[in-house]
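Give me structure tokens for this 101-residue protein.
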Amino acid sequence: MRRGTTPAHVFKTKLDLTPENVEKLFITYAQNGSVRVEKTLADAVLAEKSVAVSLTQADTLRFDPDTIVSIQIRVLFADGTAIASNVLRVPVEIVLKDGEI
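Here you go.
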């Protein structure tokens, strides 16, 4: 992922993430033990076996360059079941001209 860009992240799963099954959803992006960006159900596009979110330039500029961002999804289903995904680790790359364009 590069700072100052607007990536779309699609996370595939074996679970049924259709809107009628999901009560709450958080996609958390953290660095160095600190949450930098958090997306919620309102920010997400749900499908039967996937969830997608887009990051803004401002979002990706919150990440320190040349480090790793940890990403985790937590879901509360309508039946009360709560799950957390494995933590994904993604490198953050620099851009030569920093800031929003």
